[in-house]
Design brief:
With 417 residues, this protein is α/β, with parallel strands linked by helices. It has a domain of 234 residues: 3-Layer(aba) Sandwich (Rossmann fold), CATH 3.40.50.1100. The chain is built from 17 helices and 15 strands. The protein has a 7-stranded mixed β-sheet, sandwiched between helices. The protein has a 4-stranded parallel β-sheet with strand order 8-7-6-9, sandwiched between helices. Helix 6 runs parallel beside helix 8. The longest helix has 21 residues.
Length: 417
């Protein structure tokens, strides 16, 4: 049964968890001085409004009318009860999924892409450079750039560029320019060579290099940073309203995890309830082939492979880590969002890693019973939800499980062969 919030109930503000955390995040460090990064240096990379959001302690930040008007094209996204999945699993649990695949480019990435494009536009930016793994972020930013009159240039991880040609075509449709990374267009790319499968870290380095050498250009990141997770909280805020309309309180909230934007956007609006003593489990589901949260070390590290970015305090596998060529290209990142990392360090969230076979079995099963083909990234959240539902069955406990289906897999069909 599909449940929508009314259009007027789409949140008018994003939620900023930094206002409520019982601890402070460690600041980004300047790699040249090993001291907190100055705003002046960061202004070369990001526009002023996004830097202000990055460090803001305001609990709610108003969504500009221009961004809201674009959100209304696809928001609110539906919260759907997976009744067929419940029936096949014979679980007493209620399972709901928040379906972000209805966005213009098929994933949750559009939420922050539109916001970042808007703030860059009003700040005088002409060109946005970025990276993309599986292509969801690159296509979302290309769409947002078209909407707000910005050029968008994308470095796409080479293995995904080869695996997912439709993503490249989608970026081109929205006037985005995309090249495989490593490329021969930058010194960073040439360092690795065109036979390298690529990583998000390398693609970030290429995009950053271009920004640092060109005027009127900025860098846009699809995950990890505080302002990106801020924009994605519209997911969790809508979930809260939708559950309230149903008279439900979630027991388990689940999201797939790569850099942290989808997972963070899902669970952050519920953090105050967790801090007040409510028993809510937050589960981040990641691939065993790139186990940042479950196997990574909590320390300062670069967000890219070459060392252009500030040093961030996060769980990391190391900037030189090269993950296997899994189809969930959006989860092939060596680090994790500082906010998500700090929540894990303080034991407010949990993380679990799933292997590719288990993940795709869950995805295929979900597609057959619920009728939606999930993105390989989202499939990790499905695997986590199924595991929690079977646990409820074994324990004979009724509970409400909610996960975010962060995107559809219609451009990823080759992965299901």
């Amino acid at each position: 049964m599909r449940k929508y919030v009314h259009l007027q109930e789409v949140p008018k503000s994003w939620y900023n968890v930094l206002a409520d955390l019982p601890f402070k995040l460690d600041p980004p460090l300047d790699p040249e001085t090993n001291k907190p990064m100055t705003p002046e240096k960061l202004l070369k990379t990001f526009p002023q409004p996004l830097l202000e959001q990055e460090v803001s302690d305001k609990r709610f930040i108003e969504i500009p009318e221009e961004v809201l008007n674009e959100y209304y094209v696809f928001r609110p996204t539906p919260l759907i009860r997976a009744t067929f999945l419940e029936r096949y699993l014979e679980t007493p649990a209620k399972i709901y999924y928040k379906y972000e695949g209805v966005s213009p480019t098929g994933s949750h990435k559009t939420n922050t892409a539109l916001a970042q494009a808007y703030y860059n536009k009003i700040s005088g930016t002409k060109t946005l450079y970025t990276e993309t793994g599986a292509g969801q972020w690159g296509s979302a930013l290309s769409y947002a750039g078209l909407k707000f009159g910005l050029k968008v240039k994308v470095f796409m991880v080479r293995v995904s560029y080869m695996q997912k040609p439709a993503r490249k075509q989608l970026m081109n449709l929205f006037n985005g320019e995309v090249v495989p990374s490593p490329s021969n267009l930058t010194a960073s790319g040439k360092k690795y060579g065109e036979d390298h499968p690529g990583t998000l870290g390398i693609a970030i380095s290429e995009a950053m290099e271009k920004v640092l050498e060109q005027k009127n250009s900025k860098y846009a990141l699809g995950s990890v940073l505080n302002h990106v997770l801020l924009h994605q909280t519209i997911i969790g805020l809508e979930i809260k309203k939708q559950l309230e309309k149903l008279g439900l309180i979630p027991n388990v909230l689940i999201g797939c995890h790569g850099g942290g934007s989808n997972f963070g956007g899902t669970i952050l609006p519920f953090i105050p309830e967790k801090l007040s003593g409510k028993n809510i489990k937050f589960l981040a589901c990641e691939p065993k082939s790139c186990p940042t949260l479950t196997k990574g070390e909590y320390k300062y590290d670069f967000g890219d492979s070459v060392g252009f970015t500030p040093l961030l305090k996060m769980f990391t596998l190391g900037k030189d880590f090269v993950p296997p060529k899994i189809h969930a290209g959006g989860l092939r990142y060596h680090g994790a969002a500082p906010i998500v990392s700090a929540l894990l360090k303080n034991k407010l969230i949990e993380a679990e890693a799933f292997d590719q076979n288990e993940t795709f079995q869950a995805a295929k099963f979900f597609a057959k019973v619920e009728g939606i083909i999930p993105a390989p990234e989202s499939a990790h959240a499905i695997a986590g939800a199924i595991k929690e539902a079977l646990k409820a069955k074994e324990e004979k406990i009724e509970k409400t499980i909610v996960f975010t289906l962060s995107g559809h897999g219609l451009f990823d069909l080759a992965a299901y062969v």
